[in-house]
Amino acid sequence: MSNTSSFFQTKKRWSIYKDKLLENYLPLYLSKILATGKDTLFIDGFAGKGCFDDGTVGSPVIIRDKIEHAQEISKFSSKIIPIFIEYNKKYSQQLKQVLNRDWCYIRNADYKNEALSIISRNRHRNIFLYVDPFGIKHIHYEIFSELASNPNSVELLLNLNSFGFIREGCRLLDVEIDDELDAFDDTDDSDIFINDIDNMNRIAGGDYWQEIIQLKKLGSITTKQAEEWFVNKYMERLGEDFEYIFQFAIKTGDKNIPKYRMVFATNHIQGALYMSENMIKCNNEMILNNRGQQESLFDYDFARYSCTDDMLEVLKQATKSEKIINCKDICYLMYMICGPKYLHSDVKNALTELEKNSKVKITRENPYTPTGKLSKSMDFLNKEIYVELI
Predict the structure, then answer these.
(1) HEC letters along the chain
(2) Whole-structure pTM value
(3) Euclidean distance between CA atoms 9 and 49, whole angstroms
């Protein structure tokens, strides 16, 4: 069983993607959240020591720098309050030195108890919860459920080691651990915390995972299928508390299995659209890197033209329940149904093409420009634009 000390020697290739995801999303998020007029808690649940041994910065430094810049240029009086939770006392002390800001709060505490306590006490504030654990043993679902009950703006970004969960589930239910699972050892120190079935239920937010492991034991499903089924069930569970949920798989090298899943949940469509765009760009970069930066023009052209076809199918599904649909909802559905494929620009171009070919009718809340001309705007992020399938 490995431990956290080896983790901080150097930033792994797959860790670069999750840090980029956070780094690219924060400027958009912070500018919007400062404008709400309410203070916001930004909780980094497993902060670590701030820097890797090779000098590469970790998420706490990224968070500190982005918050500092956002507040410097903001015209609003609301504040972002970052709280960094780190269980290891030595790491928390190092983190304090690395961050070196009196407005950055470091909590040398257990994430499970501390995060739940902070979230339950701050229902009057916006909250962003970033959860990037060393394994899976401490990510109790009840914390996310408590977060979702906050009536203000709440967002969750979770690094879910789904294969690690399946591996641990197999161990606890006496199911053989095959070669695929052997690569996903849980990095928590077993001497500090001994896992059990009840704790796995608390992680998953239910006992549905046990049936998946039993099906794997019977040979009814493969390891890869077990992981996919677990992720789907976990996302369904999140969907009971959050309105907008999605995930994408971080894959490195030539292996076609996820190293982990980045999961995002919120009750606000604007945050969902910003993060989905961010995840698509991250996914595109990851694919290129795994190919050795060899981009296929055929793949690009195919994706560009297939967006219109996929849009029609999504609209057909969506209009079964509603005749007229907000463009924001269409964009979210495109991600949920088609996966991390189409950028906002692709969605806009597809809708414009469909309108030109009289396949859809587009209605804008403000039909005219400030000069009195008929508006052709497709800026659905900042304006209310509606689509009707003809």
Answers:
(1) CCCHHHHCCCCCHHHHHHHHHHHHHHHHHHHHHHCCCCCEEEEECCCCCCECCCCCECHHHHHHHHHHHHHHHCCCCCCEEEEEECCCHHHHHHHHHHHCCCCCEEECCCHHHHHHHHHHHCCCCEEEEEECCCCCCCCCHHHHHHHHCCCCCEEEEEEECHHHHHHHHHHHCCCCCCHHHHCCCCCCCCCCCCCCHHHHHHHHCCCHHHHHHHHHHCCCCCHHHHHHHHHHHHHHHHHCCCCEEEEEEECCCCCCCCCEEEEEEECCHHHHHHHHHHHHHHHHHHHHHHCCCCCCHHHHHHHHHHHHHHHHHHHHHHCCCCCEEEHHHHHHHHHHHHCCCCCHHHHHHHHHHHHHCCCEEEEECCCECCCCCECCCCCCCCCCEEEEEC
(2) 0.91
(3) 11
Distance CA(222)–CA(219), nearest Å, equals 7
203 within 8 A of 141, measured Cβ to Cβ: yes
Pairing of strands 385-389, 360-364: antiparallel
The torsion of the CA quartet 289, 290, 295, 297, rounded to 10 degrees, works out to: -140
Please give the Cα distance from 147 to 152 (Å, whole number): 10
**What are the pLDDT tens digits along the chain (390 aa)?**
345 555 565 656 667 888 889 999 999 999 999 999 999 999 999 999 988 877 788 999 999 999 999 999 999 999 999 999 999 999 999 999 999 999 999 999 999 999 999 999 999 999 999 999 988 999 999 999 999 999 999 999 999 999 999 999 999 999 988 877 766 555 554 456 789 999 999 999 999 999 999 999 999 999 999 999 999 999 999 999 999 999 989 886 656 678 889 999 999 999 999 999 999 998 888 877 776 655 544 444 445 558 999 999 999 999 888 899 999 999 999 999 998 889 999 999 999 999 999 999 999 998 998 899 999 999 999 999 999 999
Residues with Cβ within 8 Å of residue 197, at least 6 apart in sequence: 172, 173, 210
